[in-house]
Design a protein that fits this description.
Distance between the termini of chain B: 73 Å
Distance between the termini of chain A: 115 Å
Helix content of chain B: 40-55%
Oligomer: heterodimer
Structural class of chain B: alpha+beta
Largest sheet of chain A: 9 strands, mixed
Radius of gyration of chain B: 30 Å
Number of strands of chain B: 12
Number of domains of chain A: 2
Strand content of chain B: 5-15%
Number of strands of chain A: 13
Helix content of chain A: 25-40%
Order of helices and strands of chain B: HHEEHHEHEEHEEHHEHEEHHHHHHHEE
Largest sheet of chain B: 5 strands, antiparallel
Number of helices of chain A: 15
Order of helices and strands of chain A: HEEHHEHEEHHEHHHHEEEHEEEHHHHE
Largest interface: A-B, 29 and 25 residues
Shape of chain B: elongated
Radius of gyration of chain A: 27 Å
Strand order of the largest sheet of chain B: 1-2-4-5-3
Amino acid sequence: MTIKKKARKFIAAALTLTILLLQSGCFDRRELDTIAIVVGVGLDKGSEDDNVMVTLQMANIGAAEQTDPQSASTGASSFINVSEEGPAVNFAVRTMQNKVSRKIYLAHNKVIVIGEEMAKRGVSDVLDFFVRASEARLIVNLFIAEGEAVDILGTSTNLEQLPSSEIQELIRDQDITSTAPNVTELDFVTTMVGKATEAFAPIITIVEDNGDKHLKVSGTAVFKDTKLTGKLDDFETQGMLHIQDRFNRGVLFLTVEDTPATIEITDSKTRLQPEVFTDGTVMMHIKLNVSIGLGDQGPGINLFTPAGMEKIKAAVSDAVKQQIARSIEKAKEYNTDIFGFGQSLSRYYPKQWKDMEDKWDELFQTVQYDVEIKVIPEFKGRTSTFINPK
Amino acid sequence: MFSFLLRKAGVWFARKQQSHEGSERVQNEEVHIVGDLNVVLKQLKEEVQDSNDIVIRRFRLGGSQGRECALVFVDGLSESRTVNEDIIRPLMRANIKLEEDSATEIIARIMHQHVYVNEIGVLHTMSEAFGSALFGDAVLFIDGVPCALSLNARGWEMRSVSEPASEAVIRGPRESFIENMRTNTSLIRRKIKNPALIFESFTIGRKTRTSVCIAYLRNVCKPELVKEVKKRLRAIDTDSILESGYIEQYIQDQPGSIFATVGYTEKPDVAAAKILEGRVAIIVDGTPFVLTVPFVFLESFQAPEDYYLKFYFATFVRIIRIIGYFITILAPAFYVTITTFHHELIPTSLLIAMAKAREGVPFPAFVECLLMIVVFEIIREAGIRLPRPVGQALSIVGALVIGESAVSAGLIGAPMVIVIAITAISGFLVPTQNDAAIILRLILLLLAACFGGFGIALGLYAILVHMSALESFGYPFLSPSVPFDLEDQKDSVVLLPNWMQVSRPKGMATDQQRKVYNVPPVGVDKSDDN
């Protein structure tokens, strides 16, 4: 009898435990067809000053289902943009849920585009949500739109299915041209909150091209604290990227002894070496190693010769110096240390930096620099002469 | 917990059995053979009734004047030619005088002079006589002699040695064990021509009286292991042993575990290799499947071919098998968990593609997955049971139904078909673990559907704990990984060439550890030339 009783108790306990376990399960279970996959976020200034207009781009699963070409022509877009205005980003996103039949899912977001007006007002409060929410990733690419972010996200795509993928691919291709910095949300926020650094982000614009609208990424938006203060063009951006040692590959158009030529920069390595003089002035020694190749050349002297090479080296050196000078000039004009000079100082001179830290804004204006460039020619090509009819 | 329940149930059943047994048990008292032939034959008739395959041939020794005798044998088990030519004929012509000779003299003369058979035994009890006759011997009762002679006349219909059905190889011996135990022992003996190879016989099963034989190498196999195997075999008390699977269930260390801790093989070369490593083989009459103990988990990933091929390739294939095993137990669970809990783990484009495929599917991913697993198991099971020509038609229908139509009908998503297909195919990489894998797959799937990745981790952890606790005849089931032994890794996931496998697995054999005696010379040895 006792065995029977024991067995009954045991079975009861086992059942209770199993049911308990099963009850707790599945609470955050979400089937794939119940989520709205957000792939892009646009943040614009709302109609009222403190408001923010949030635009979420979601993959249109239902429409994209017909992948065969015949039904694709029915015109169902592969994405849906939904906008909602609210006093705060999180509030707006939650309110937007009323308009979206599926649960808004942020983990697959690829880009955050911030409208120009919004950026000028300051971005720290709108980015707070994306830093705080554990669902959203920090490695999304961040862009400053020339104009409204909602227009950027609404631009029809060329090669990719989703505008946000197109934007992401555009910034990835910057390692070939180096005319815009590749900045993730994490980079942006850390440089923004860092005392010795200032934030910057690539600029995205809509350009018209044979009547079609396209997206274009080039140039840098420069921030002072949380606010957009100015912009760098392609030329200055290259200078900035050289100083930051973020320059990967790019092209320069030069005229060497009346011979036009495209010079390809295949690699650039930079070392920043700060020096603090006894009177407190700061000198930045910028040392670059630039590898170059000859992309093409026009009529004139043959540049693919030892003599031509020397001339190109001198010209490239001059051009890069000019880029660097222009970018530092601009940064001083906006009074924002996007290069991380302060960070470099804090590493080399931690003690002196403590004194300089508070007045760095004024000191930055007085920073002197010299540039030392070593150009390494790596000429390759199928032909070594200009194809010139005799 | 499960094995605890099982043990409780076992105790309960045993108790129930005992209460039934009391009345049924018949005291089988030893009946000695008496000197009166008529009495003996009466006893015999009582026992076998009118069973028509038992033949009792009465005749007189040395012609019509001789003593009366009876030859008892089973039609079909004893060879007629042997019985006619080598037993009855010489006995009829024997010169045995009726009065002069005593019983012992008659026995001696028959044994030494008159029958031409290779095995002769003297039997004293009726049960011995029955046993002998039912094994195919011809039993000779002689009037006035209080014992019987068993004369080997065994010879029955059997399948010839053919290719193994369950363990196909491309390179390696093609022969397989058959249903006859003697043939099987001879197949092993032909591989190991060494007097140290010992075969010891048992008869198990009250009703079936099945011959079971253990094989081991003296001086290599640990005496304790042999003792343990014998102990467990002797402890089996049941009516019938029809296949080695019956034995397996009785001698397992943990009968409640889903993992088999007894290995089986159909190939004599595999059995021989295991015996040479210090294992014990158990050969059961009536089945081509020979058991080997101890059995460790990693043996499931070893194919006989591994040892005959280049070791690089063998290692590669073993790794593939291990990956396949993990795929077959984990793929459905993993798919369900990433589609219902961990969407952030998938690349965006894949997520969108998968979401597209799920669009319009009426069931949750878990139900969808379970459905597909069940459908696959139905098709697999039906394919095994059906006659071969029908089986093929079935597999085509099955492939069409689950592969094509179900997807286009919108019942299931296309990725699920891929997942289940790869799960099913991977399962066949490790056939000996397939039965356990199906159960594990379902448990992990359930856990994944309830708790996501956490559930899978929990499940794997529990399985690992269980496996680490398992033993096979005192040998750790996960060895040589747990407990880890560097030297024994030579034949685990990686396989080193044969000449580098200097020692037998640790703890398996006695101190006679060496099994390789030289390393192959590199290049041509020029020292012999002069």
